[in-house]
Amino acid sequence: MTKDDYEKQEHLKTLILLAKSGDNKAFEEVYTTYYTAIFRYVITRVKNKADAEDITQNAFIKIWNAIPRWNSSHTSPLAFFFVVTRNTIIDYLRKNSHKEIVSDEVVNIFANEHGSTDKKNNSEELSNILLKAISKLSSEQQEIINLFYTHDLTYKEISSVTGKREDAIRQIHSRAIKKLKNLYKY
User: Fold this and answer.
1) pLDDT single digits (tens) 16-57
2) Could you tell me the end-to-end alpha-carbon distance of the chain, in angstroms, rounded to an integer?
3) Cα 147–148–149 angle (5° rounding)?
4) What whole-number distance in Å separates Cα of residue 118 and Cα of residue 107?
5) Helix or strand or coil: residue 23?
6) 3-state class of 186 per DSSP?
7) Backbone CA torsion sign across 168, 172, 119, 107
8) Which of 19, 73, 101, 160 has the smallest C-beta neighbourhood within 10 Å, fewest atoms?
């Protein structure tokens, strides 16, 4: 973790503690600072902007209501937000019977990190190939790839979000990458 990341996390913890004590302005700052990150996570899961906006709003309402239960020694603030948001998405998907889909953004990030330089010339074709490969992963693998590549969460944070052990997250990620390398043929 860089010094800047550490300072941001500490500032966020301070804001949450202020919000926990009833400071609405502190939560307003949390909301404006992290709305985009939460929205991006939601839109990668539901693919519909209007639904994503509604889910994001609901997630922040749930975050506000859950702040009294947040413990700074247990979870990073961002992981806490993603846990609440993930549960909000799951509720929405159960209610609306939508299938989770990995976003084009995850596809592009993965293609850039794992594609060779000569393959990068035809990025649209590569993205389509990789998107098909990612769609063949389990929903659990898709979620971990999404959290890892799009949201830059650590294994520990992903563990907090999903409720799985950190070593299990590493294993799922590793297996997903191996499967993608086999499926991602150009």
Assistant:
1) 889 888 888 999 999 998 899 999 989 888 878 999 999 999
2) 35
3) 100
4) 17
5) coil
6) coil
7) negative
8) 73
Whole-number Å distance between alpha carbons of 73 and 57: 26
At 74, the amino acid letter reads H
pLDDT classification of 119: cutoffs 50, 70, 90? very low
Nearest residue to 41 via CA among 135, 159, 146: 146
Tell me the C-alpha to C-alpha distance, in Å, between residue 116 and each of 8, 22, 128: 34, 51, 16
Q: Given its phi and psi angles, is residue 159 left (phi above 0), alpha (psi -120 to 50 degrees) or beta?
A: alpha
Q: Quick one: which of 36, 1, 29 has its CA closest to 157?
A: 1
* 3-state SS, residue 185: coil
Spatial CA neighbour of 20 closest among 67, 61, 84, 77: 67
- Asked whether the CA dihedral 150, 151, 157, 159 is positive or negative, the reply is negative
Q: Where are the alpha helices (DSSP H) in 48-122?
A: 49-66, 77-96, 104-114
How many other C-beta atoms are found inside a 10 Å radius of the C-beta of residue 103?
A: 21
Q: What percent of the chain has pLDDT over 90?
A: 22
Query: Is the separation of the CB atoms in 59 and 88 below 8 Å?
Result: yes
Place of tokens 């389990």: 138
CA angle centred on 86, ends 77 and 66, rounded to 5°: 50
Q: Which two tokens stand for residue 82?
A: 């993603």
